[in-house]
Please model this.
Amino acid sequence: MPLFKTINFNSSTQIIVWKITESLVELSEKVVLKGKTRLRLNAMKSEMHQRAFLSVRMLLKEAGYSDFDLHYDEFGKPYFVNGKHVSITHSHHFSAIIISEQTVGIDIEMQREKIIRIADKFVNDNELNRLKSFDTPDYIKKLTVKWGAKEAIFKIRNEKGISFKDHIQVQPFEIEDQKTIAQLHFEGISQKFKIIFEEFENFTLVYAFEN
Model:
């Protein structure tokens, strides 16, 4: 069973990471899905996407939940009826969930050179110049952390109109810090988030907590 990592961040927050090595058939045999979830799965055209989708249900099992406990609001944000917060992510052959009594968001991303080409879409000039000037060897890794942090915050807020570039800024950090602070400025709201991150197998896992 490819449970890759369990992180007990504190007494009320757990992060679980799955490495997707099973076939679609193997995963299908290990989870029970409610009807609308099965319809959603069958509508997916990519088998990799289907396997990732099912691996998230495996993660729910690891945490003591099932597909029947997971619901989505009108904006597509997942939630549990027991009041605990949940956030979901997957990328290539990894998936992860975070479950907490705090408001949280999570993202996992593969570290790729492609991110350099799209950097100006999600970081402003000040962020970009600071990265280029001070730490070129870690440029891709830091960009990946910034993207993951902004994605995790967006999952928390889940509001139309939020711009990664214009509304979410990540404070300077070093990769070895494994944490930083980000701020959201949007429609008169100013909010800080605690960002935690780590790397494994050329992937970056990032999760955010509301301050």
